[in-house]
Each structure stands twice: as C-alpha cells, then as structure tokens.
Predict the structure.
Amino acid sequence: MKFVLLLLFIVGCNADFGFTGINGIVNAHNTLRSKIAKGTYVAKGTQKPSGANILKMKWDSSIATSAQNYANRCPTGHSGTSGLGENLYWYWTSGSLGDLNQYGAAASASWEDEFQKYGWNSNLLTIDLFNTGIGHATQMAWAKTNLIGCGVKDCGRDTNGLNKVTVVCQYKPQGNYLNQYIYVSGTPCSGCPSGTKCETITDFNMNTITLLLLATLQIGVYAQFRATTQDFIVQIHNTLRSKIALGTYVAKGTTKPAGTNMLKMKWDATLATSAQTYANKCPTGHSNTAGVGENLYYRWSSLPFSGLDVYGGAASVAWEQEFQTDGWASNAFTQALFDTGIGHATQMAWANTGLIGCGVKNCGVDATQNNYNKVTVVCHYKTIGNVLGQDIYKSGTTCSACPTGTTCETATGLCALAQFRASTQQFIVNIHNTFRSKVAMGTYVAQGITKPAGSNILKMKWDATLETSAQAYANTCQNVHSNTPGVGESLYTRYTTLPISGLDVYGGAASVAWEQEFQRFGWPSNTFTLANTSPIDTTTAHATQMAWASTGSIGCGVKNCGVDPSIPGYNRAIVVCHYKSSGNILNQQIYKTGNSITMKTLLLLAALFIGAYAQFSSNGQTAIVNVHNTLRSSIAKGTYVAKGTKKAAGSNMLKMKWDATIATSAQTYANSCPSGHSGAAGLGENLYYYWTSGTVSNLDSFGATASAAWEKEFQDFGWQTNLLDLTLFKTGIGHATQMAWAKTNLIGCGVKNCGPDASKRGMTRVIVVCQYKPQGNFLNQNIYTTGATCSALEMRTILFLTVLCVGAYAQFSKAGQNAIVDAHNKLRSSIAKGTYVAKGVKKPAGSNILKIKWDPTVAASAQAYANKCPTGHSKGSGYGENLYWRWSSAAPKNLDEFGTRASGAWAGEFEKYGWKTNKLDRALFGTGIGHATQMAWANTGGIGCGVKNCGKDKTKNNMITVVVVCQYKGPGNYMGQDIYASGKTCSACPGKTKCEKATGLSSFVFVGINCQFSSNTQQFIVDIHNSMRSKVATGTYSVNGTVKPTCSNMRKMSWDSTLATSAQTYANTCPTTHSNSAGIGENLYMRTTSANIGGLDVYGGAASVAWEQEFQKFGWASNYFDMPLFNTGIGNATQMAWAKTNLVGCGVKNCGKDASGMNRRKLFGSSDICQWIHMFPMSNWNCLRPDYWIIT
C-alpha cells in the first residue's frame, strides 16, 4: 500500500500591505526613532535628548500575519494579543478608499503626531504621562522594540454610512510598560544592546527590511526539505565544524586539535537543486557530479514513510557518528583513512567546503531489501572535499589561517565570509527583478520614452557560488574589473568622509545607481554595442547587465576598504556583483522585443516558461473544494441519491481543503499537457479534458466543471457496495470514488490551455489535473465506512481537525472571547479600585484581584461540556463553572452575543442581591450570588467558555435553547474563604504579577523570559512530535520491528507561547529536577560538553529525538500506563505520544559550567502542556490510558 507524505504548512492570512505600504510604515517608525536617537527630534517646540539604546525597527512577517488576522475582523478595540504591543488606526471617508498601502504611512504619521500635540516631559512612562494621549507614539519610539508587522482592512460602509479602513500594527518586544523608560537618554548608540552595532549611515529610502516578502517561488520537486530543515542540516554541520575549529571535539575518546581554517557552511539553492534532482532518481551509488562533494544516506523500513524532513537531521547525525565510531589519527586524508569508513564525516568537516544543499526522496518499495520502503537523502558540497593527499583541516590556533575574504567568528571559531545579509541579498534581487519586470511588461520609461516589451527576460535569483566569487574579488579592493571567465560583473565604489559602519545599505545603493544609467542616458537600440560602454561618464553597461534577458543568477559581495590613499581623508566601500549567464556581449540583443512570455507569467517562474503555479484563482479553488465537500457532506449525512438510490450515511468522512503544495504538483503536470496519468507517488489523481472550436477565455470555470463531470459518474452508474473492487472500479466511477474517498482530506488542482489539438481537428484543448492526499481508490478498501454520521470521526480525527462533523470546539469567535473577558475584568476592576456599587452600597477596594484572561484549554473543556446540552453542572473538571440558558422562539443568528448576555446576567446577581461580607459561607451563597462571586473570585486567573445551540426544547414549548458554559481556573466559591481581600488596591498582588494601575488588577508578567528558541525551531520541535504522533495514530509506528496498533483519539500538537514562557522561566533556573508545575506535563533534557556552547536552537530537535528514542530503545507492551511501564524508562516518549496532549512549549538555557567543569544546556519541554484538554470522554480512551495523571 502506498503511503502519503504529509507536508504540514502554517497558513496565515497574507498581509494586505504591499511593498510600498510596508516600506512607508517601517521608514516612518525608523525616521522618528533615528531623530530621537540623534537628539534632533523636536516635540511641541522642545528638542528631546538623544537616545543611547534605540534599536532599529524591521518588518516581521509573522507579526504581520497576526496583525492582518486581527485587522480582518474590523475591530473596534485592542486584541489583547499576549506579548505584542499594538496600535490601532481608523479612517472614514465618503469617497473611495483607493490604494490601501497609503494608510500604513498615514497611520504612522497620525500616531507620531501625538508627540507633536502633547510632547513629553520625562522619558519615564507613568500612568499620568500615558493618559496625556501619547500611547501610540511611545510604542513607536519604545527603544527595546525592534520588530513590527501590520495589517490593513477595507471594512466597507460603517454605521455612519462612510467607508472605513482599519490599520493594526503589532510590535515585539511589547512597549508601554508603566514605570519603565521609553528610551535611555545619552550619547547615541552608547547603550546599544549586546549583539547590535551602531548604524551611523541610515538611508531609509534604501530600506532593506521589507523585501523578504517578495521571495521567489519554490518549485515543487526542487525543495523537498523545508527551510526549517535546511537550517537544521546546516546547524548540525556547523556545530561539528565549530567544535573542531575550537579544539573541543572529542572523537572516540580523543580531543582533536583546533582548526585554523574552518569555513562556516551555508545552504546553497543550486546545490540543493542538483542534490534533489539526483535524489529523485533513487540512486544506489554516487553521481560523480564534477566539482561537487556528495554524501548519500539510505533508510529502509517495513512501514510507509510519512514526513521526510526528519531524515535531513537523521542523515547528518549518522554521517557525523562515523567520527564517534572510528575516530581519526591524522588530518591528512589518505586512502587508508578513507577506508576506515569516515568519508561522510570528513566531507562534513572538510575545512574548505563552505556550501551545502540537500535533497530527499521517498523511493517507495525496494525489491532488493525484502520489499521494505526506502528513503534516500543526497547532500552536495562545494568546494569538494575528500581529496586524497590534502588535509581535512589545518591544525593550529583557531582562525589563524582564515582564507582571504573571511573573518573569524570568535564564538564558533569558524571563518565566515563578510557577506550581505539574507535580507539585503533579497533586496538586491528585488531591485533587479522590479526593473526587469517593467522592461518585460513594456512599462519601463527611460528619458521619457516607454521601452518596448520583452519576450524572453528571465527572473533573476541569488546564487551563492557567484556571491562567493564576488565577495572574494571585493575583498581585494580593486577598482578595475576582475575579468572572471564566463561571469558578468558590475562594480560600485562609494567614498565618504565618515567612518563606514553597516555595509548592507550599499547593496541597494549600487543597484539603484546602475539602473539610473538608463534614466540618465537612455538607450536607442536593444543591440549592445561599444556605444553602451563609452565614454565612461555616459556608460549604460551596468544597466544593460541588469536588464540582460538571459542572465538568471546574481551574487554580490561588499568590502569596507578603509581610507583610500589616492583620496586622502575619504573612506571607501566597494560592491561587486557577478552575473550568470554573462551579459554585455557585443552585437547581441539586450532582450528580444515582442509579446510577453506565454500565459503572461513574465518574471514569476524563475526561468521556467510553463505557466503560473496557481492558475486557479482563489475563487476557482474555492469552487472546486465546495463541489467536492458538497458531495462528501451529502454522503456523510445520508442524503445522497445515486442513480435513484439513497446511499447510506458515512461515519468517517473528512472535510476536504485546498493544499498549495499539491496544487503546484498538479499545475506542473497540467503544464505538460499530458494524455494520461502522472503516476505521482502517494497522490490520487483525476484528469479532465475539454475540447472546443471556440475561444477559451476563463480557465477558472473549468475546475468546477471538471468536478461536476467526475461526480456525475455516481449519477450515471451508481454503486451497490462501498467496497471498491476491480469490478466496481471498471463500471466507470473511479473519478467520483476519489472525490468521495473518506480518508482523503487534501486537494490541489491545475489547469492548462493546451492550444490546438491535431488529433481533434485542431480544436483547442483544456486539461484539468486534480491531485489528492491521502490517495484514494485502493482496491478492496471501503470508499467510506457506513454508520451514523461522524460516529467514527468523533474519536478518530487522528491529526486532522478539519473533519466535516467536528467543529464545535471553538464556537466563540475571538471577538466573543474578548467580550466575555472584558465583562469579567470590568467587574473585577471596579471592585479592585473600590468603585463598585452593589445594591446601593459601595464595596471596599480589593488588594489581590487577578486580571482574568482567556485560556484555550479551559475553553475546550467548557465547549466539550456545552456540546452535551447539559441541564446541570459538570463533575470532575477541576474548574469553577457558571451555566446560562436562554430560550427563544427565534433561531439565534450570532452565538457570540450569548457570551455577553451570560456575563451580564451573572454580574447582575450582585446588583440584585448585594453582599455584606467578603467571606463566602452557605448563607451568603444561598442568596443567589454564586455566579457573580465566581466572576469576582480574586484568585481566578483563567477563563474559557463554550456555547451550543441545542435546538428545540420540548419542556419549553419547543423553544430553541442556547446554553453557555464558562469554566474558571483556579476555581472559586470555596466556603469559608474570602471572595477577595479588601485593602489598598494592588497592595497584595501575588508573586509574578504587577499592578495595572489603570484597572487595579494584578496582571501576570514574565519579564525578560521570552522563548529562546527561534520560530523555525519551535516549528521543528512541533513537527518531530507530530510526526511520531501521526505514525502512532495511523498504525504505522514501529518499535523493534513491531507495528503498534492505531490510536483513535490522537490530537494534533501545536506550539503554545504561554507554555513556552513557563518552560523558559524554569529552564532559566538551570534546575536538575522537575518543576512539578500543577496541571502541566514536563520533559527535561540535559546535555553536558567540554566544548563551548554555540547556538542553542539545535538542542530543540536533539531533545525531541532523544525523548522519542526511548520508545525505540525500550518499546512498550501495553497502552495502559502504570508505574511498571513508567519505570522502563519511556516517560518522556509517552508524554510526547499522550493522545489528549495538544499543546507544547519549550525553553532552553546555556547553564555554563557545572560543578564538574563541563558546560551544560537544559531543554525543558512543557508538553501536554498542553494543559490537558479533555475533549473526549475518559471511557473512550484507548491510547495510553492513565494510571497516573502527572509523572514527575
């Protein structure tokens, strides 16, 4: 049976701000911050003191996604997003809103104007200063904030009849902390944080931050490893290389000598493409690719493979293990040394190798290995290693022989190229491609003349090999061309009397200067002649190289050449860009004029003129998915009629959704205008052909048309049994059965106008390809399982939470959640400040009342109980609980409103009955204020609610019933305890909280405890957990050759920032035992080493793999979790696999040298952390049942 590779993608809402909008926002912020930093900012007529510690702000796409998601709701108040600062801006007009990009800068200017209107007298942000109305401006200027992301939304006509636009900007780290400084005054840059440098030259018109949003498209088969895995592979290589360079690497018990010349390795897309191309052949031996080093790795399993990303790290670790197993006696690479079996490890450690790129392939069943499934990993390296007679590396003082053009990274001991940052590389590429796009589309104007469109202009991309050669030449500080064979070259020199600091700005400056040659001098002809190159002061040769149609690759280097002796008093920076294929060839055309590339892809597809990868628009995609889900839904509900027969309901039908990766694969195949199936491994596939003698105008319509044609097979032929055998398949319903295959939940489609078809008398042919995952149409399997709708899904969603019948776990929207929390905190705040009046009596202030916040774990529990349409309280949840019912003869339109109604009704008990004492006893409780006291209970810090439309209630004259369940953490209403402690507001705030003066509530804070793991590593940790959980869930997990049974209630795990904060907080204490945090599972991982500890990210994956290995090492005989099973040593693995655990958050700490003198790192994965969401009845557990709830 074929198995499906599940590539999980996090898909957020794309930010609606384009390049100009983003640039305007970032520039507005940094212009303000720069003026303040330099002491030139004047607010309300007063020049403000200079700032010593103001960070430069840059765009963050993750924050932008969060901001856009919130903007899309057209909010009227703040989101309260944890850990992010937030500014809001609204604009109304009776006219058209026009380009939304303009509102980014407008919002920024509006916020900054607060400083102009109100000024500020002190840098210390107090409540009085905040209340003057400068809160938006102070967040803009907050020194420690360095990341920003914004969203914008056209909200249509508001209640006032005007068109409304909303802008949301979110910031990290968050600003506007009361009693902290907006910035530290002093000499500019004198207080720059560690790891930053002072930027003395700032050219905001050449801002490099935003353009990562314009990254080039990845092409299906050439990027099997995700970016996170690419980084992880490089990290493993560089960790090994760093240890060797620093002289701390121990191989087979022997500490190896330090290295003098070890290059820092980085990923190279060209090598990755060549490696992936070779991996796709499922080779059994080396490719012998000229000039490239190569490592191969194979993995066989009796089980189908799922996620392939894990094998990048596995291969790298396996290769490095050769050093551990066999060691090496000499750095001289000889045949005898190679024959010891360390060839993969020596290539990893080869000092002169600076580039790596890898590919991976699921090669399916290998007949030569007992029909086991096989995975192949190929990594290509440059410069090639393992050259006989040369040294692996030169031993000696670390970095003492770093090659020319590199600098020593003292922390790692590696020799790193002084190169442009990744963001600047992309900026350079984008400037080139923006220019080339205009030329290609015929919109480029030079000296007032619109130039003709180009028909053959390639999209340009960055090339690490060219970058290396360009950087090497830049390091020579030559003012003349290198004449490197086969490479085009542009030079740019900048002179300044100021010291040169940041070099990145010169990448964009050079590109703009070169393009300006066309603006200054134009070009009369597309034929390149000597007139383009002379005289030197009117040359357009740099611009023609930028525009040269067949040039597809670029790489640049930059060098601070110091004081130029030929021009005393001036510092010089030089930029070198190398191009391939080389341009500026005499008497050849710069580009060919004519119609743009077929299907108007222009520059979208990086030298592939094969049509766009998403020919179906979002509307077309939606139409396809809807046709499929309409069919699947009617089958699931038992309402589908095929050939006059009503079909039985389906119990396990997953909801289908669009998958961009599959769509790329389908579009790629459609572009080949095939006449038969592709045989794509692991994918189901439907094909549809359409011929017409007319004109094909709208390809979008063919998606729904194809889907309807496939579904019609059921109408034409019907089916008598759900078991798909060859006889049933041959009736001609194969397309329809793939559409209806219950386990398939992902679809992606492509469409192609294939032009005249000679076999059909020249009629125009259109082809539609849809591919599906997991694949359907397996003979002798059921199309779907008959039974009560969703009865087999309620406990068997595996890792898919998009099933047709499961969707009631978060009925309250974010706005509804916020409304409930706000209602609670409004009551709690008025009590805390002593302004609350109950039944005419003003109540004493509260000294210890926590600010309540939404808890998704509690909400899941509340929603699960609400789904039962209860008539009384739940038992055993461990939470406090309020219930609310409402009956109406009219159907509810918006369930969100019932959260507010319920909160108001509960709080109304105080208004109706009041209370005379804060001590809760039976008599007080019996007055009828129990819901209100739970709302006000001082120690309650978390709330989560659920809501359910329970339909008609026969006991209430068939009126429609809605039930609201709110549960509270920690619970209140303890007899004999105080509702709250009366006293001065906030005077008894619990530990780890601070007083919010505006509300009088005690808010939990975690100062300086941000998760140390990068977002990429967070996702990698989650992926490792989910990869293992998916295998367990689907019954494909093997331990010591034994396949473990399937699991019916395994939830998909995701990252939780609250848990990460908790885990990081505990990691920061460098403990040696568990924290025993209530309600939280916890895994610990400790690593000691005599080497210096570099980057910590690598340990997230290492810890996860180590924990999972407990299953491989010890196995488990039973799913029943008891103490004997725990004592076998699989406690970390069982926490990873615990079915009901769905949240994880981790922290890591470099704990320095321990008592033994070894350096120690700790990783803490607060998993389950999942703070155990009991979404399923305990009696239905059949996967790792608990005998002990928390094992420590």
Residues 556 and 584 are 18 Å apart (CA to CA). The first strand starts at residue 42 and ends at 43. The mean pLDDT is 82. The domain at 814-1004 is CATH 3.40.33.10 (Pathogenesis-related Protein p14a).
